[in-house]
Amino acid sequence: MTATPPTDPAPDADQAAARWLVRRQDGLAPDETAEFEAWLAAAPAHRAALERLEGTWRRLDTLPAAELAALRARTRAATPPRRGWQGTRRWMPLAAAACALFVVAGGWALWQQQPVYAKTFATARGQQLDVTLPDGSVLRLDTATRAEVTLYRQRREVRLPEGQAHFSVQADAERPFDVLAGPLRITVVGTRFSVRHTQAGLDAGGVRVTVEEGRVRVAPADPAAGAEPRLLGPGEAVAGDAGGRLRSAPASPAAGALLWREGRANFENTPLAQALAEFERYGPTGLTVRDPAVAAMRINGSFDLRQFDAFAKALPQVLPVRLQPREGTTEIAPR
Fold first, then answer.
1. Range 165-184 average pLDDT
2. Which of 55, 80, 135, 258 has its CA 20 to 30 A from that of 143?
3. Residues 240 and 285 occupy one common structural domain
C-alpha cells in the first residue's frame, strides 16, 4: 500500500503542484492517479498552478547548457531513489524534490529577468547621435540627451531621464519596447516615434510623444496616477505634465515636432523666453531678457538651431524689440 503526502490545513496550490509534478516523473499507481485527478478537479487554481509549473519546466530547455545542467543537478541531488519512498515518511523526500523544483523554476525566472544588453548613451550640448541596438532598433539622440538602454529576453526598455530622442523600433511581438520618460510609459511593438522630456525649452518640465508611424500606447508609469492610457496613431501627439496627466497635443505640429532631427526648431505662438531656452540647449546664445513683457512676446516660425545669429538679427524685424549690448552680453529690450 502506498502512502501519500499529508494534507496541509491550508494547502498551497503551487507547492502541491510541484509535489505532483515530481511524483508523476516516475509514474503513478492507480490509486495515486485517482488521487491526482481528484486534486486537479478540486479547484481551478490547482490546474492553473500545475500548467504554470509544467510550462516553466519545459522552458528550461531555453537555458544555456551549463546553467541548465547545474539547475537540474540540484533537483536530482534533492530527489531520493524511489525505492526509499516507503511508509508514512514518503512525503518527506517528495517535499524535498518539490523544493528543488522550485529552485530550478526560480533559477529560470531569475535568468529570464537578467539583461542581455545594457548600455547608457549620452550627448553633449550641441551634439546629436545615432545608435543602432542589437535588436535592430535605431535611436537618434538630440542634444543634451541621456538614454539608458536595457534589453531583456522578453522585453526591451529605454529610460530617458533628460533630453529628446527619436525611436525606429524593430518589430518583435514577443518583446514589447517601453520608453520611460518622467512620469510616462510609452509602449510599442514596432513603430517610429519621438519622445521629448526636458527641463528647459519647449514643453519644459513635461513629456511630449509624437508618432510618425505605427501605433503607440502612452500611460502613466505609476498606475496610481489614475490617468487613462492613450493610443496614438501616425501624426498624433500627446503631452504629459509632471504628475502624469495626459492631454492631446494639436495634430498640426506633429511633423514640426520632429524637425529637430534636421537641426531645426518649430515655434508656434511660443513665448520668446522659451524659444531662447530652446536655442540654449544647443549652445550659448549670449542673449538676456530682463523685461517680463519682452519675455512673454510670442514668436512663430521654423528656425535653424545652428544659425542663432540669423535668428537674433531677425528679432527686431518681427517683434517690437531692440538688441542692446550690455556687460558682455546682448539684452533684448523693448523698443
1. 92
2. 135
3. no
Q: How far apart are CA 86 and CA 79, in angstroms?
A: 14
Mark which of 50, 80, 113 sits at the end of a domain.
113
φ/ψ (deg, to 5) at 149: -100, 130
Q: State the average pLDDT over residues 289-296.
A: 94
pTM: 0.65
List, in sequence order, every beta strand (DSSP E) within 174-240: 177-181, 184-188, 192-197, 207-213, 216-220, 230-232, 237-240
Per DSSP (E only), the strands in 175-328 are: 177-181, 184-188, 192-197, 207-213, 216-220, 230-232, 237-240, 246-249, 264-271, 287-288, 298-304, 321-326
Strands 184-188 and 192-197 come out as unpaired
DSSP string of 127-151?
--EEEE-TTS-EEEE-TT-EEEEEE
Exposed e or buried b per residue across 174-198, where buried means at least 16 C-beta atoms within 10 angstroms of its C-beta: eebbbbbbbbbbbebbbbbbbbbbb
Name 20's Cβ contacts closer than 8 Å, sequence gap at least 6.
36, 39, 50
Whole-angstrom Cα distance, residue 207 to residue 24? 54
Query: What stretch of H or E contains 44?
Result: helix 44-59
Distance CA 265, CA 253 (A): 11
First vs last Cα of the chain: how many Å apart? 104
Signed CA dihedral, 215, 220, 222, 223: sign only: negative
Q: Beta-carbon neighbour count of residue 305 at 10 Å? A: 20
Cell numbers linked to 329: 552680453
Average pLDDT, the chain: 80
Look at residue 278 and tell me if it is in a domain.
Answer: yes
Which CATH number fits the domain that encloses residue 134? 2.60.120.1440
